[in-house]
Amino acid sequence: MLSVGIDVSKEKSTVCVVSSVGKMVLKPIEVFNNENELEALCQKLCNIGEDLRVVMEATGTYHLPLIKKLKEHGFFISVINPLLMKKYASATLRKVKTDKMDALKIANYGIDNWHKLVEYQPQKEIYEELRFLGRQYSHYIKVKVDIKLSFISILDRTMPGIKKLLTSKHTENPTKDKLSDFVERYWHYDNITKLSEEEFVSDYCKWAKEKRYAASAAKAKSIYQAAKAGISTLSSSAASTKMLTLEAVRALREINKTLLTILTEMKKLAITLPEYNTVLAMNGVGAVLSLRLIAEIGDVNRFHSGSALIAYAGLDAPPFESGNFAAQKRSISKRGSSLLRKTGYEVMKCLKSAKPTKDAAVYDYMIKKEREGKPKKVAKIAALNKFLRIYFARVKETYSAA
Fold first, then answer.
1. What end-to-end distance do the CA atoms of the chain give, in Å?
2. Which of 270, 300, 322 is the last residue of a domain?
3. Could you list the residue range(s) of the whole structural domain that residue 26 is in?
4. How much of the chain is helix, strand and coil, in % rounded to 5?
5. For residue range 319-365, what is the model confidence (pLDDT) as tens digits?
């Protein structure tokens, strides 16, 4: 038995090979993560022996080129959770931290846990692409929040109170934003108050029809009164005021276009999967959340049970017992996909708002927990646990029937 420990970094990796008796077959060497050096490494490993397993830590994306190259040569690869490796490495008195020592510790971990090593199985390409798109979507959502906060900060100085008057309903199309469209036309209260009320009402209704919004004269009058009463602290005569306001609108519009493009691409991929219609039909899951759920969960066939999916989300509460003591109140582990937990929590919020009457097992369970005196957040997490079990069962059934 030969264990190959690889300490992975961005540009290069350190490789060490240890035998079952603890003998160092290959002293730690550095290998750059490029085609030529990785190919040479594979040839060297092939010449060392046959009963060989490669062990490395999960590093986000840095370990993926090595996996791809090693898989081409048919090596057994096991990707270890960094937390497990940290606990294994901490079982020493002297704390030594170098790339060479890390590679040796990873190789020794492979020997000590030889029969427990699980071979790395990449997901289907479509799930990998969906996950990548989903992660990018979440990144751009964070960017949008920052831009939106900056935009609102400007409006508080040019058009105080306008946000409350122009809150638009939630739509699956992120490019539809009534507030941004309005500010693009009337970027300062001075542009409203220089008109008479009748002129503004007429102009507002004309603009609303062009943009396909409700042309409400009452809404226009409310905006006009707010413009008359509002105190703007940024002058409309300053060139920077108009420039910054319109740039914020443009930035918000561009990020919304990016989000729509990502969602469109995700739907093209997800609609080809057997579980798409099943997930979309679940209560609380709309056109966007269904894509995000499928992207983050991936192929359910890689989970042996609903409990495994719950553990993947970090919603499991491991038992805590000692002697006669058995803890009754335990927190979720949070050792899993934080993005899946966030997406699932959004599903629970939508479910709570929708108040379904059909297929309402999850909703009823949430309400039951609230009536038992549980905090609303705890009730939602408990309901999410139940939701993921149902998700697992229904999607597995979809694949069984296919």
1. 41
2. 270
3. 2-116
4. 60, 10, 30
5. 666 676 666 667 787 888 899 999 999 999 999 998 988 889 999 99
